[in-house]
Write a structure and sequence with these properties.
Oligomer: single chain
Radius of gyration: 19 Å
Structural class: alpha/beta
Largest sheet: 7 strands, mixed
Number of strands: 10
Strand order of the largest sheet: 6-2-1-7-8-10-9
Helix content: 25-40%
Order of helices and strands: HHHHHEHEHEHEEHEEHEEE
Low-confidence stretches: none
Amino acid sequence: TVTVLDDVRQFLKKKVGLDVDGVRDEQLERRIANYCRRHRVAEGDLIGTLSDEATLDVFLDSLTINVTSLFRNAERWKKIEEILSELGPRPELWSAACSKGAEPYTMAILADRLKIKPSIWATDIDTRILAAAVEGVYTPQEVKEVPRDVLKQYLNEVDGNFHVDRKVASMVKFDRQDLLSGPMPRKKFDLIACRNVAIYFSQDAKRLLHSNLAGCLKPGGYLFIGSTERVDNPGDLGLDTVSPFIYQMVSEPVGSKS
């Protein structure tokens, strides 16, 4: 109902800074109804159950669209491959909001093909989805964009699913990270990928997210975002658009100098 939708929206904004106003009413209503049916919760009682953090995590996961696939938006990864080839033999890479791990594993595969040895840090706020990422198992649908030769070399088919080769898996370190309220890493990165998460945030939260990520880039480092996203006023963060959905740190963010 409209009341439930309004209550959920207000609760998520206040509790976790998550803005789902951009999600159409019918979509959000359907996800809420599916969650309540699966977990045998009356819609009117839903908000009361979400004070439990574990329950809230499950509910948040049910609201987000965890569409994940290796080499998703293949044309974007061609540009990332070009960038990786220019970053030197041991670049520092971060896949933020990595979901099931398809993105950092794609990075690892590209790096191996380029014969470079990056440090790849992959993070998400959802510990359950991180556990799935560590497993590195994908359905045929989730590997449909992987070039055939890459699929044969780096993924092993077992009982109809595809397992990331251990050589690739060993290149990625997974960790839990809250991109908004958690402390940001002290190290700086040559490339940060953070795709399809800002679409759920309020404008203020988006600005904070992009500011946090820009602050973690090395001079000349790159930020890779989702195909439905944009960084507002990138110049204020020291960023310049170098390709669709790819920004480069070209100067210090405005106001960062002492």
